[in-house]
From TrEMBL:
Gene Ontology cellular component list: cytosol
Organism expressing this protein natively: Microlunatus parietis
Descriptive protein name: Phosphoglycerate dehydrogenase-like enzyme
Family membership: Belongs to the D-isomer specific 2-hydroxyacid dehydrogenase family.
Lineage: Bacteria, Bacillati, Actinomycetota, Actinomycetes, Propionibacteriales
GO molecular function terms attached to this record: glyoxylate reductase (NADPH) activity; hydroxypyruvate reductase [NAD(P)H] activity; NAD binding
Keyword flag Oxidoreductase: yes
Amino acid sequence: MGRLGVLADLFASLPSLAGELERSGRSWAAVEADDPGPHPVETMIIGGQRFGADRLDRCPALRLLVRAGIGLDLIDLDHAARRGIRVINTPGYGTEEVADHALMLLLATVRRLPYFIGQGGADWRSTDYSGVRRLRGSTLGVIGLGAIGSAVANRAEAFGMRIVYTDPYVESPSSQRIRLDLPELLAISDVITLHAPLTTETRCLLDAAAFGRLERRPVIINTARGGLIDTAALLAALADGRIAGAGLDVTDTEPEPPRALLEHPAVIVTPHVAWYSEASRHDMARLAVAAATAKES
């Protein structure tokens, strides 16, 4: 087995990582993010930092890059491919957590929770009750019916919502979940939730043209990647009433979301925490070490 490197920043966010490495029996070395190298490692575990061609080239012997997490959009995959570096992620550690968080944002946004919490300490007689729709019988449009999208659909069905989805890789798993083209989904959905990866093809998937196809003034939920939504187009859709609100755990400018989103009364923003629980954080470390120390690596 070749030498294993671990980006040092990970130990703060994954407290169980060092213990998992020790239990693996594999020798390893911490690599500081600002160390120019070269680093004599063949396998590297990284987190959610940008890992471009320059950082890949600091590791001339690198053959396997393990992303502790899911998203690969900050890694220069083309350069990795040219170098013959295999890049893998660690799906499965936070599926239930992200689905729970998406449903929480859905309920809080549809039910106008921030506004009603504010009214709890105000004159109740002045409360504006408008704009809350019934969930049962409404349509949830799921963009990306992978593990997380399916878990969200399962939860939404328990609330009596009808499920439609768009995903080029998933056939209809049942007669209760109907696959549509994106324009069709946009036109009939009361709530739209995004669970697609961020790629060249999906960047700004919801842009001005997409928002122009909306017919039912839906709520938008995003717990996937901020770049899936054109923020300027989202704000414009909020301004002209094409959408009723948005629940966002990710934005395209994170970790500094636009003030216009943070201050909008119909928008809920959480700081990219949908994945998190104590159990999911431990599983992320465990899965990353398992991937990095597997025999084939």
